[in-house]
């Protein structure tokens, strides 16, 4: 734990150094894009972005140091499935903006445990996935599930995609509005069956596998009639003291 705190301190120092010139939100966003870029082998969704050419050589070295520290924190002494990106995002960027306090990991783990045993190939979906920690909690129960997440915030979508890829979990993370079902693009995470090395393909607007499955599920769901219920009106009596 003490070693991880040291890694976090080094990450913070590097982040704050670059933020003096570019702003903390841009640096964090560019960090996510830098982590994703080498994993994407097919960018049909035009979501891949390499931000490093805009930085000076010494700044790129600092980026590399940040990536190293993030990887160490995510590894969590070899246990993995640690939402380091979500913790760093809440601490240094969101400050609760737009209600972006992610569910505590212990609550996520409890909810995953309440689902009981999950068989290989079953699907797990979080329609407001944030940084993906609910999906990571499910992976602690079974890594061989199909993981689906979606969020309206593209930063959250990228964090979840990185979390799945870095832990070799297969699935899709959609950038979409889950209320209106408007889909803007997706990161689809694959795993090589022989080496188990993760790689990513991006999907363009309107081509999400997850959206199609959700719509099909809704259409096939039986509609149950609700019997008429009597309306009970409770009148409040005014008491005079």
Name the poorly predicted regions: 232-241
- Please state the overall shape, judged from the principal axes of the Cα atoms: globular
Give the N-terminus to C-terminus distance in angstroms.
62 Å
The strand count comes to 6
Sketch the topology as an H/E string, one letter per element. HHEHHHEHEHEEEH
Structural write-up:
The protein is an alpha/beta fold. The chain folds into two domains: 2-94, no CATH class; 104-218, Rossmann fold. The protein is built from eight helices and six strands; from the N terminus they run H-H-E-H-H-H-E-H-E-H-E-E-E-H. The protein is globular. Mean pLDDT is 87; it is low at 232-241.
What key phrases describe this protein's structure?
241 residues, alpha/beta, Rossmann fold, 2 domains, 6-stranded mixed sheet, 8 helices, disordered C terminus
Element layout with pairings:
Blueprint: H1 2-22, H2 24-36, E1 40-43, H3 57-75, H4 84-94, H5 105-114, E2 123-126, H6 133-141, E3 146-151, H7 154-166, E4 171-177, E5 182-191, E6 198-203, H8 209-220
Parallel strand pairs: 1-6, 2-3, 3-4
Antiparallel strand pairs: 4-5, 5-6
